[in-house]
Amino acid sequence: MNNDILNVLISEEEISQKVTAIGKKISEDYKDKNLLMVSVLKGSVVFMADLMRSITIPCEIDFMSVSSYGSGVKTSGVVKIIKDLDINLKGFDLLIVEDILDSGMTLDYIKSLLQQRGTNSIRICTLLDKPERRQVDLTADYTGFTVPDSFVVGYGLDYDEKYRNLPYIGILKPAVYEK
Ligand code: IMP
Ligand code: MG
Fold this sequence. Notes:
By secondary structure, the chain is of the alpha/beta class. It has helices at residues 12-29, 45-53, 105-115, 174-178, and strands at 5-10, 35-41, 60-68, 79-83, 93-101, 121-129, 142-146, 152-153, 169-172.
């Protein structure tokens, strides 16, 4: 698995420090709010699991699963809900937790969908941001790292469902997806 990685972009330790810092900030910002963390499966589960444990105020969690049509390394922009949230969102301050903000189409769609359900507020927390590839006007409220326009894997992020279990974030060798 490690042989398919061109280089380590963000180490385990860098991720851990950043996640702790974001958790601290969220704990302060939401101390008088009604925090519900929403993880978009599957890419954000690793980030979600670490982030929620660095949050020191009461919060609830829920999961949703969407698929951006088209496999491979690019999003098509068409989003389909595979699994919706279980919790009634009325009165919650939602924090959508994502692995990576790329074109922004997936999150833009999810955000506008959830906005119609009586939430107090909705913010976005993304571990990675690839601003060069943005196709919609969307910025995250909390961002871990800004990354270059390369395909990255690890710490939850996949290529063809693999590499999610790498503890660091690495750039995938183009030969892997050009095959
Ligand atoms: P967007 O709709 O283009 O912003 O894409 C969002 C989704 O595409 C992410 O949640 C990821 O699942 C996937 N994605 C985008 N870029 C990468 C990458 O570099 N590595 C792995 N997955 C990615
Ligand atoms: Mg993915």
